[in-house]
Specification:
alpha+beta, Fructose-1,6-Bisphosphatase, Chain A, domain 1, D-Maltodextrin-Binding Protein, domain 2, 2 domains, eight-stranded mixed β-sheet, five-stranded mixed β-sheet, 8 helices, 15 strands
Length: about 270
Amino acid sequence: MTAVDFARFVEDLATASGEAILPFFRTQMGADDKSGGGVFDPVTEADRAAESIMRRMIEQSFPEHGIIGEEFGDKNPSSEYVWVLDPIDGTKSFISGMPVWGTLIGLQHNGRPCYGMMHQPFTRERFSGDSKSALWRGLDRLGKPVERRLHARACADLSSATLMTTHPALLAPGTLDAYRRVEEKVRLSRYGGDCYAYSMIAAGHVDLVIESGLKPYDIVALVPIVEGSGGIVTNWSGGSPADGGAIIAAGDRRVHAQALKLLESA
């Protein structure tokens, strides 16, 4: 199957998952807590419904492929092709009625992220990339479908950078001080956004995203989008981000290098 065929299939996954999610958004839906007494980690019926649909479609179309999903675990994760799914990245925003969440659909080939989409069905936006190019599709002011190539913006120095993280309280133990070292150097820091923050790197509105404690399903789909816009995504050691953990994404390699130097002692 060609890359174009995979991309078309991802479109189908996005459409089906969005149709499963939207009836729950901004309703009086309840949320279960997966944390086991730790920091609140919500999951909803929308999460489960969307992942179930995507897994069923993948299993029917590509039974030999593996799947890594947030809600229902791993299936054949050592396969040549592995789908990495987060049905709602930003569930806390979702249950708060805020539209800064999205469905993450990633594809790995031999362990390397090769294609990804962030779909926001409420705002009707799709960010996609294959590490060589990235694309945004949405609606113009008249409601007509439009698309454009994504290009990360140049940023030569931390003093000019906009930095985002979901929230400092969510950073893994032992990493907050390192994050603060970067934050005190940047022009502007903002909290929230989850997957939307990475998409804004690709769109040229944000320069850095720094997080820790991520799982593969939190980041795999976003890597080809950021890279396709000209940006870079690594772990805090400068290595592959595919396994999650402590992650830094940047639109410009110069500001990535400066921030990484401040993080490296964590």
